[in-house]
Structures are given as structure tokens and as C-alpha cells.
Amino acid sequence: MQHGLQLYNFREELKQDFKGTLKEIAKLGFDGVEFANNYGGIEPEELAAFLRELKLECAGTMFPKEMLCEMDSPAWEMAKALNAPAATFSYTTNLPDSWRTLLEMCQMAGKNAAAHGTVFSYHNHWQEFSRLEDGEYVMTRVLAQTDPVQVFIEPDVCWLTRSGVDPVAYIHRYASRIKQIHLKDLRIPEERETMTALGKGCVDLAGCIAAAKETPCQWLIYEQDHSEDHFADAAESLAFLKKF
Which of 113, 147, 195, 227 has the fewest CB atoms within 10 Å, i.e. is most exposed? Predict the structure, then answer.
């Protein structure tokens, strides 16, 4: 299992100097990076070559949801060139009321991904664990009504914890549909501004990592939305990951 870094952590730095920031990130020692909608305006093959130069693999590709619902979207060429384990989007609009729209988009993205020789992987936040009228979680309903060969879940253990869902049990439940797991930590579940380096918060990361090792998961991906020092927290988080 490999260690990846979610590039959303460095979103502002990448806007200023995309290649230069990637070069500095490569020095941290992660196995790969997961892109978060920003590809630096670089053509797919050029970006793939740049990653090889940096000795980084692609841990994932995230795109706006509309792009993955288009069969001819350039997103598929990018995902293929980078040899991404999956193409991913997230959706948080007006849930649970719009859950059928989310379901339809996941079904469409899954079919498109299959046609392009890859899979679609959905990244959750906490809104997907609001309940429908019958008491079932939105995410449970969506996964139940999508093709498990085409539609995967990229569980974010921090948002599962915030939702009151046991992330360890969740990883076990959907083991066959997981290629990547987002590991993030925070001190107070209801306050996203309290995100911290891995191992310094309240999320059961040790349990999640142990559970992940019992699944076909390929990537453990560190993410930290808020940080006063992105590079220092990333280095500390990688050191934590390497303990397991």
C-alpha cells in the first residue's frame, strides 16, 4: 500500500507556481499525489512525463462532477495518461433532497469510466450521511443502486467520523469497492478549522490503516484542508504513516 498526498493541501501554492510547488512536494518523500481539479494547464502526456521526472506516481485524479458525466470529456484522457487508479468527483449540493441527482451522476460517471478502461470513485464529505425518509443514509442508497464494478468509494475517514459513522467498520463494509482512502485528522469533529497533522487529532487513524490493509486498497492519501505550514504538517503526517 502506497502513501499519497492530496494536492488540495497546496491549492494556493499550486496556483502561483504549479511545477515549482510539485518539485518541492516531491522532496517530502510521498509515493504519489492526487490531483484536485488543477492540472496546471499542462497537456496529459507532458504532465505524466513531469511526474516520472519527479519520481511521483498518480494517486488519483479529481475533476468537476460535470466533466465525468461527459463521455468525451478531456478528463478521461488525463486520467489515462497519468495512469490514475480512478477518476473522482464529490457532490455536496442540497443533500439529502437531491440524492437522486447524485445517484444519476454516479451511475453516468461509472459507465463513462468503464468505457474508458478505468473506474469512477466517489469522494464523500459528511452531507452524504444525512438520512432519507426511510432512515437510510444517502451514501448507502447510492452505493446500493450503482454497479460495484464501475462505481467505487474513496472514503474520507475524517468526514465519516464527523458524521458519526465508524470509519473502520465502513472500510470493512465496502472493502471490495475501495482503491483509495483519504486520511485526515482533526481535533474537534464539528470544526473543520481544527484539522491537524495526522495522529494529533481524534480520528481513529490506526484502526483505519489496519482495516485498509485487509482490503484491496492501493493508496492511503493524506489530506489537510487547513494548515499554517503545509510542508511541515505534510512531513509530520508522512512520518506518522510510516509507523504502520
Answer: 147
Strands 57-62 and 180-183: unpaired
The string of pLDDT tens digits covering residues 77-105 is 999 999 999 999 999 889 999 999 999 99
**Cell match 464529505: residue?**
125
- The set of residues, in sequence order, having a beta carbon less than 8 Å from that of 138 and lying 6+ positions away, is 95, 96, 99, 102, 127, 128, 129, 130, 131, 132
Q: Which three cell numbers stand for residue 126?
A: 459528511
Contact between residue 223 and residue 90 where contact means Cβ atoms under 8 Å apart: no
SS3 139: helix
16 and 49 Cβ atoms separated by less than 8 Å: no
To the question of pTM greater than 0.85 for the whole model, the response is yes
Closest among 224, 220, 193 to 209, alpha carbons compared: 220
φ, ψ of residue 75 in degrees (nearest 5):
-60, -35
Cell reading at 189: 469533529
Tens-digit pLDDT profile for residues 107-150: 999 999 999 999 999 999 999 999 999 999 999 999 999 999 99
Dig out the grid coordinates for 32 from the structure: 504519489
Model confidence pLDDT, tens digit, residues 186-234: 999 888 889 999 999 999 999 999 999 999 999 999 999 999 999 999 9
Question: Using the 8-state DSSP alphabet, how is residue 137 labeled?
Answer: B
- Dist. CA 207–CA 213, nearest whole Å: 10
